[in-house]
Specification:
Elements lengths: L1 H18 L10 H23 L5 H13 L10 E7 L2 E7 L9 E7 L12 H14 L1 E7 L10 H13 L2 H6 L2 E11 L1 H14 L10 E5 L11 H5 L8 H11 L7 H5 L9 H4 L7 H4 L2 H4 L12 H6 L15 H4 L4 E9 L3 H13 L4 E10 L6 E2 L2 E2 L1 H17 L1
Parallel strand pairs: 3-4, 3-5, 5-6, 6-7, 7-8
Antiparallel strand pairs: 1-2, 2-4, 9-10
Helix pairs in contact: 2-3, 4-17, 5-7
Length: 408
């Protein structure tokens, strides 16, 4: 009996050691976040082991586990009509609220889900629930884009999927089919979906053949650049749950079908060192010392290598492709962007991506709302369903929907 108690005590201590992570005092639901992070780490480590043994790609296994867990949940709605369709070869899920008396046309949001260009789906309960609530709260038609994922495809295919689906929806006859007002359409997305939404919006703004364009863009903690992995938020939050810095770098490598051996060089900004000529023209577009307010810069210092590795850009030119890194777009493109909402979280490596994009858009003359949350973390907006329900998720979702309701 004593041996059993000793073993149980040791197991409890090891579990506590694995779960516990020092977090900023402002983070909401800290213990729940630690448990979520511990679960993520355990699952990811298992998937990487399977990858290492060459049994399957770790992202394929991770998506399988996400779908398996998701089957335990049931998210439905009697009021919202949910259908699957194909827009120019791209699968989408459409959420339609019931028609109201004397109402002719509805507003609409094209939504692009997150997941590092590799995980989740428009059909998973987390995004199904978000889009259903958006449809109900806004009385709007929501188009949730089911773009193809890594490792099935890599950049630029995710971008092309999102662009094709959006352009198809913006056709007058398609909008008429769904009774959508052409002048009241937004494009939106979270995390990697925010990246795709921003890139698609930039591309649409330059398309001279389009007669209908989005009225708004709404980006939720978007990932917008792979130029500098040592911005203050990357330094401050390098070990934060859900999206530590090394995980974000690996997502970029997977998106570009690159080599994991480059991860350390990317982490210390060798790919954008002063002697890398391809990066020189972009440096001024991502100078966080001038784009960030002092409250975000704090006492962090830029990490700029004098001598780096130009061959990284030669091997992965997409690191400087604005379709993948919208923050590097030229001012002429930014001037064409619609009214913009950007939600950022203090405890997120991507915080400064969103803040810098907001500043660059403002400098280009675009009306921008920067909605910053001091107590929230990356990915929180979709975590509103038990057992991953967070007060931060409800808080950010309500603020996001409120802005859309007031501006769309």
């Amino acid at each position: 009996m004593r041996t059993a108690w000793v073993l149980l005590t040791a197991l409890a201590a090891l579990s506590a050691y694995y779960v516990y992570l020092p977090l900023p005092g402002t983070v909401s639901d800290p213990w729940k976040l630690m448990l979520l992070d511990a679960t993520f780490r355990a699952v990811q480590q298992t998937c990487h082991l399977i990858h290492y043994l060459r049994l399957s790609h770790h992202l394929t296994v991770l998506n399988y586990l996400i779908w398996t867990f998701d089957k335990l949940k049931s998210v439905s709605s009697e009021d919202i009509k949910i259908t699957d369709a194909v827009f120019d070869g791209v699968e989408v899920r459409v959420f339609e609220p019931p028609a109201k008396r004397d109402e002719r046309l509805k507003r609409s949001v094209v939504y692009i889900h997150g997941g590092g260009w590799a995980l989740a789906s428009a059909r998973t309960s987390l995004y199904n629930n978000l889009c259903r609530i958006m449809a109900e709260s806004l009385n709007a038609v929501i188009i949730s884009v089911e773009y193809r994922l890594v490792p099935e495809v890599c950049f630029p295919e995710q971008f092309h999927d999102a662009l094709r689906a959006t352009k198809h929806f913006l056709q007058p006859d398609v909008l008429a089919e769904y009774s959508v007002d052409p002048s009241r359409i937004a494009i939106s997305g979270d995390s990697a979906g925010g990246n795709l939404a921003a890139a698609v919006c930039q591309q649409l703004s330059k398309d001279e053949h389009l007669t209908i364009r989005p009225k708004l863009q709404a980006l939720i903690y978007p990932v917008l650049q792979a130029f500098d992995f040592n911005t203050p938020s990357y330094q401050q939050n390098m070990n934060m749950p859900v999206l530590p810095r090394y995980v974000m770098i690996n997502y970029w490598i997977d998106y570009f079908n690159g080599n994991y051996d480059l991860a350390h060089s990317l982490l210390i900004n060798n790919h954008t060192a002063l002697d890398v000529g391809q990066a020189l023209s972009f440096r001024g577009r991502l100078n966080w010392t001038s784009l960030l307010p002092s409250s975000f810069k704090k006492n962090y210092k830029p990490v700029v290598q004098t001598t780096g590795k130009a061959e990284i850009i030669e091997e992965i030119p997409a690191l400087l492709d604005v379709r993948a890194v919208p923050l590097l777009a030229e001012n002429e493109t930014l001037q064409l962007q619609p009214k913009t909402y950007i939600l950022t979280c203090e405890n997120d490596v991507l915080r400064d991506d969103g803040v810098m994009y907001a500043k660059r858009l403002e400098n280009a003359g675009v009306e921008v709302t920067l909605d910053h949350f001091d107590d929230c973390f990356h990915g929180c907006m979709i975590f509103t369903i038990w057992p991953t329900d967070f007060s931060a998720g409800i808080q950010t979702r309500n603020s996001y929907i409120k802005w859309l309701d007031e501006n769309l």
